[in-house]
Design brief:
The chain is about 25% helix and about 35% strand. It has three helices and nine strands; from the N terminus they run H-H-E-E-H-E-E-E-E-E-E-E. The termini are far apart.
């Protein structure tokens, strides 16, 4: 699996509202013992913990939509969108020695943006075993998403 293929699947997980299906989507792109690190959330271990975190974010990102309402999403060349929320990869994906990185920007229904950079370690089968999130900041800016 290439980093690009892995990220397409990972993007699906961020738009999947059903917890059991979300874990299965994550299983396709992440190892069972995935470690997810974020400065605000700390260190999460395992598919269930990562799925639960994504589920909490789904609820907060689309607060005006009932939680059980279907939110179909569609994938584009550089991202995914659905339910008034989108995420776009705004840099090339750089890969070397078992690691890759890329920057992204979330756009929420209120127009606010959430930029960041992920640094990921891959297992031998290409799935992610480590995802480290670095939010964008004035000191480490992330490029703006393309206008749609």
């Amino acid at each position: 699996m290439t980093p690009e293929e892995c990220l397409v699947i990972y993007g699906e997980a961020w738009f999947e509202r059903d917890p059991a299906r979300r874990v299965e989507v994550l299983r396709r792109c992440c190892t069972e013992d995935i470690v997810f690190m974020d400065p605000r959330l700390g260190r999460l271990h395992g598919l269930d913990a990562v799925s639960d975190m994504i589920g909490q974010h789904i609820g907060s990102m689309s607060a005006t939509t009932p939680e059980d309402a279907p939110q179909p999403s569609s994938a584009g060349r550089r991202g995914r969108s659905g339910g008034g929320v989108s995420v776009e990869v705004v840099t090339p994906i750089e890969y070397f020695h078992g690691f890759f990185r890329y920057s992204f920007v979330w756009k929420l229904p209120d127009g606010s943006l959430g930029p960041g950079t992920d640094f990921c370690e891959v297992a031998d089968d290409g799935r992610m075993r480590l995802i480290t999130v670095w939010p964008g900041s004035d000191d480490f800016p992330v490029p703006s998403p393309r206008e749609r």
